[in-house]
Amino acid sequence: MPTELTWLGHASWQLNTGKHALLIDPFLDDNPVATVKSKDVAADFILCSHGHFDHVADAAKIANRTGGTIVSNYEISEWFAKQGVKNTLGMNLGGSASLPFGRVKMTIAFHSSQLPDGSYGGNPGGFLISLTKGPRIYFACDTALFGDMKLIGSAGIDLAVLPIGDLFTMGPKDSIEATKLLSPSRVVPSHFNTWPPIAQDPQVWAEMIRSNTTAVPIVLKPGEKFSF
Q1: Would the N or C end of the chain have less CB density within 10 A of its end CB?
Q2: Got the DSSP string for 52-67?
Q3: Does the structure show a pLDDT above 80 at 126?
Q4: What domains can be seen in the chain, in order of their start residue?
Q5: Cα(69)–Cα(86) distance, rounded to whole angstroms?
Q6: Can you tell me the distance from the alpha carbon of 70 to that of 60, in angstroms, rounded to the nearest whole number?
């Protein structure tokens, strides 16, 4: 079966491999553009890139309902475990883990990380997901542009998901430079148009990608899916 990626709005994504359902940074119940709620989504694994509310808000309730495993940095995983989440996997930057769907590597991200109750959220990160006999997908998550994206891209990336909202993450222009460094086959924008401060025109962004990189831009609306 093809891999299916769904934008749930903001920086929240669902990745279906045919056998396993992955959620990335679930923020649904209080997300003004989300088309589904936390009670509606399936999850075998829930990947949380950092501790900010708009990335971890619904992770515990989804994990407790589905029995899914939260995968995050060590500090965030311990924080969830203390809240009663049964299944967690703590990682750290540069580390990898073999899971039933493939392999996950936690990459660096230049951002900040504090949990909703003010607890220390460890280092923010991104995820490089290598699906078994499938594509390799890079979720940059919340980050600024950084030169080591070239090293991340050297693994060969079929699809990159990059923030373009600006203000809190890199904006459209820096995402073009990120795409050049990563050299993915396809690139998808994330973390934009949730609220006015991060409003962007994704069609303008897509034209910039076409004009300045070799990647194919894929623009989704919240709730839309892309199979590859």
Answers
A1: N
A2: -HHHHTTHHHHHHHH-
A3: yes
A4: 4-221 (3.60.15.10)
A5: 8
A6: 8
